[in-house]
């Protein structure tokens, strides 16, 4: 039985065709929304999700009235180029108004990422249904968005060509991993994380086909200390209209390595870590996780597919997607046990999980390789690594530990071979 909707660029594997149903709809203000269901009764079509958004939201690009009652056109976000570095800097003033439900600066009591609750006074949530498995939708307060009728043209700030300015014509999406707003990603079953992996692959394929998109970046910010504004198991996907500075630097080095040696730098780094062995912290049939020999963060793990030729998440086969879900689950669980507060219970680790994929159009993409870079700035159970003068001012990193000590701690938390776990 095939229940998956058909899309122009995303091609589901056998598992997704049989066990995941994608249902698309549109929110009241015109934003795209997708349910990814993995429960059999929804996959079969026996039950369906609510598709209409009952909120009286105006079209997101419609003019609005200011404090004086004057009609103001929608202001497309812009980005300006730093002449010293070449970096594009999106300027997202609309994000100042987004709801915050975590931390001392909380501005909203309800959770817009939660399923709709009948009778709940907070009814401005983003999910139309009263339950879901995984959902994806365009961010209501995006730092980048393609605005109809706004040409993607480069101009000057103050009429001076030193400062280039363009519309920040990208796309920002939110992915909710589970309806339990008090849950942790580390506690999700591997089967649910398998649906999350499918969501990453689905959106990578579709977003890469949008005109003007140069890089697709799925990532997860977790923990109040990281700056997360909504306490809910979720991540984001940015589709940049440029190549982000970190990836640009990596592409410069991977391309130079290819021209010098004919090899793939990311493959050779992975192979060298496997040969060295002592910094490898996990391995299954399809993936290997290791602490890189030049790790910056006090907790840092890179995860790479063993198969060569995998540039992006949508190129993973079914086995690789299952093995990734298992490895990601194990990594999150061990990360939560990494720092011991003396009670043996570990802690809810603040972390960033960043997917580095090959760029969409750049010719250097063929010499790149998919990888996940997972890190935390916590350096002890009661200490945080602050990015002070050297790191923030000069991007000259100073590590508070060694990669070997990080790996040794992971080895205390469980076996390297996890192929038969989970």
TrEMBL record:
GO molecular function terms noted in the UniProt entry: UDP-glucose:hexose-1-phosphate uridylyltransferase activity; zinc ion binding
Pfam families in the cross-refs: GalP_UDP_tr_C, GalP_UDP_transf
UniProt entry keywords in alphabetical sequence: Carbohydrate metabolism, Galactose metabolism, Metal-binding, Nucleotidyltransferase, Transferase, Zinc
GO BP terms: galactose catabolic process via UDP-galactose, Leloir pathway
InterPro entries referenced in this protein's UniProt entry, alphabetically: GalP_UDPtransf1, GalP_Utransf_C, GalP_Utransf_N, HIT-like_sf
Residue intervals of the Galactose-1-phosphate uridyl transferase N-terminal domain: 75-242
Domain Galactose-1-phosphate uridyl transferase C-terminal, residue spans: 251-373
SUPFAM superfamilies: HIT-like (SSF54197)
Ribosomal protein listed as a keyword: no
Cofactor: Zn(2+)
Identification of the protein by name: Galactose-1-phosphate uridylyltransferase
Species for this entry: Bifidobacterium choerinum
């Amino acid at each position: 039985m095939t229940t998956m909707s058909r899309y122009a660029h995303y091609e589901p594997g056998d598992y997704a065709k049989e066990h995941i149903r994608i249902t698309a709809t549109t929110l009241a203000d015109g934003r795209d929304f997708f349910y990814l269901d993995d429960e059999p009764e929804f996959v079969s079509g026996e039950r369906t999700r609510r598709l209409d958004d009952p909120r009286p939201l105006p079209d997101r690009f419609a003019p609005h009235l200011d404090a004086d009652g004057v009609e103001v056109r929608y202001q497309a976000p812009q980005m300006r180029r730093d002449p010293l570095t070449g970096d594009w800097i999106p300027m997202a003033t609309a994000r100042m108004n987004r709801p915050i439900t975590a931390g001392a600066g909380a501005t909203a009591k309800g959770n817009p990422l939660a399923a709709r609750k009948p009778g709940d006074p907070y009814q401005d949530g983003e999910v139309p249904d009263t339950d879901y498995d995984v959902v994806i939708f365009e961010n209501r307060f995006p730092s980048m968005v393609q605005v109809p009728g706004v040409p993607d043209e480069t101009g000057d700030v103050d009429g001076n060509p030193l400062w280039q300015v363009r519309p920040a014509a990208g796309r920002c999406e939110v992915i909710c991993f589970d309806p339990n707003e008090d849950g942790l990603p580390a506690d999700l079953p591997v089967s649910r994380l398998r649906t999350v992996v499918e969501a990453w692959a689905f959106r990578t394929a579709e977003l890469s086909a949008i005109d003007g998109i140069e890089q697709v970046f799925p990532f997860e910010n977790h923990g109040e200390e990281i700056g997360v504004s909504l306490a809910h198991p979720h991540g984001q996907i940015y589709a940049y209209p440029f190549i982000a500075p970190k990836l640009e630097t990596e592409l410069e080095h991977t391309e130079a390595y290819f021209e010098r040696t004919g090899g793939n730098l990311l493959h050779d780094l992975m192979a060298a870590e496997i040969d060295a062995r002592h910094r490898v912290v996990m391995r299954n049939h399809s993936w290997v996780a290791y602490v890189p020999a030049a790790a910056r963060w006090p907790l840092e793990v890179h995860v790479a597919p063993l198969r060569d030729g995998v540039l992006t998440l949508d190129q993973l086969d079914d086995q690789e997607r299952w093995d990734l879900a298992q490895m990601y689950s194990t990594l999150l669980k061990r990360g939560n046990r990494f720092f011991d507060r003396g009670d043996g219970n570990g802690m809810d680790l603040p972390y960033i999980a960043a997917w580095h994929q090959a760029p969409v159009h750049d010719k250097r993409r063929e010499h790149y390789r998919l990888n996940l870079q997972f890190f935390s700035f916590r350096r002890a159970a009661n200490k945080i690594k602050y990015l002070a003068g050297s790191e923030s001012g000069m991007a000259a990193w100073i590590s508070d530990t060694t990669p070997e000590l990080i790996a040794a701690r992971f080895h205390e938390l469980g076996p390297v071979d996890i192929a038969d776990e989970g």
